[in-house]
Amino acid sequence: MSNARTDWLAHAVLGIGVVLFALPVWLVLAGSTQDSGAITRGELSLLPHLDGLAVYSRVLMHGTMGTQPVWHMLMVSGGMALAIACGKIVISILSAYAVVFFRFPLRRTAFWLIFITLMLPVEVRIIPTYSVMSDFGLINSFTGLTVPLIASATATLLFRQVFVAIPDELVEAARMDGAGPLRFLRDILLPVSAANIAALFVILFVYGWNQYLWPLLVATDPGLDTIVIGIVKMIGVETQTDWSAVMATAVLALLPPVAVVVVMQRWFVAGLTEGEK
Amino acid sequence: MERRTLFDGWFLPVVLVLPQLLLTGFFFLWPAAEAIWYSLTRQDPFGLGSTFVGLDNFADLFADPLYIDSIIRTVVFCAAVSLLSMSIALLLAVFADHEIRGRAIYRTLLIWPYAIAPAVSAVLWLFILNPQVGLLGRWLNAHGVPWDYHINGGQALLMVILASSWKQVSYNFIFFLAGLQSIPRAVTEAARMDGAKGWHRFRTITFPLLAPTSFFLLVVNLVYAAFDTFGTIYALTQGGPGKDTETLVIKVYRDGVINLDLGSSSAQSVVLMVGVIALTAIQFRFMGKRTNA
Predict the structure, then answer these.
(1) Which of A173, B26, B187, B230 has its CA 20 to 30 A from that of A23?
(2) Is the pTM of this model over 0.80?
């Protein structure tokens, strides 16, 4: 099939790719163990100092000047990511189920209204969304941080696709056995779409964890700072930055979503390439 | 495709679809309508009332050279990010599709950056390109290349392009690899039998078969570069120096949230909405054709 020369080339190209991805992360990992003063003087190096791991417990417990402790920001991010991922999955399954398995008045209108949201990301409706949020009194609340991001056309479309592909015979059989609509949903649909749910969970968890603009707008209370907001605050004043603390925080900020992607890689890749095409 | 077997009743489905509809109404449709309304009005300087001004805000916007500059900058930025991240991803995907030893490990090691937040990728690149603490930035200055993205707008733009593209390669890689794997082996084998050599085979057989994937990715990447890079740019440069990295989304934020110019920022939001709707429409039209083919 393949010969030694192209194999060698493939290893070289892929190896360079792997290094290009890993190097920036290795740099912050190594840098986090070095002395901040030395880094400010321009002595950042690629070699870690193994005695410098104390910085991790320091940022986790106390944060840096002017920020919350990192453990607290990680909790906010984790809560936000979980709430968004689970919320989106639940309401998308319910609405896709209703649209596919029932006929009700204005069904098509409902579907189109959901579909339209594909075209309105937060970034294009910054100010008006903010003003709606303040009308509801949701500024500086965990609800405000999460609920507006839960509506999701993408997830609804994906589940619709999965449900439409379920054979009529299966529905027929379930009805013969006397299963009502809710039992059918619980006992048949949910197990059948478990892999899609897992894939979507990864994508949405990462989406929720990585939000920046929305929390920046809607939560000015430092108690609601996510880890992503926190780390950008930390690099704000470059002249007096505690660099090793920033790097340790960067490592802690990217670890959870990366872990979720790596652990659930198989479902995630299949779900991404099926769902969005 | 419509389903033949259905459940009866209309009350249950309406209850099930209601949460999604309420969220959509409150947080998507209402703000969008409000944006359109604000974009047609002008607030008096004391914030006491507003008057209907028709399309004046839009006329002002497109007469403003700063806005036109921002459009051009955004187009350049989006094109650079899409081309850079897609071409690197395609190269990696082509080689990851080879049957070589350890390819499962390579895949994992090329996929994980998908999970990194745009704003966090900005922080990572700061430690490479910052003129005082960054590894490469310091090296450049030490070797006679004056490098400082705080002062030099071109360098700032280059830096946000690099940081934004770096993060996006994984996403494109996943799709290109899936696209390559869906090409039947028989097709590439036949080309090989006909004596088509590596590059020639790629250009005449593989690449045309990847065209649908590439087109889909192009639209996704343009949307990513236009909107999701807010965190990357804002963390690194806040749109500066001056306005040299001020893309359209950064401008909406600066004008609306920082300078509190409601009319203009709403008009800008409406322009962005039209842009996203156009991109989505092109994508769906194209995808419709593809599924019929």
Answers:
(1) B230
(2) yes
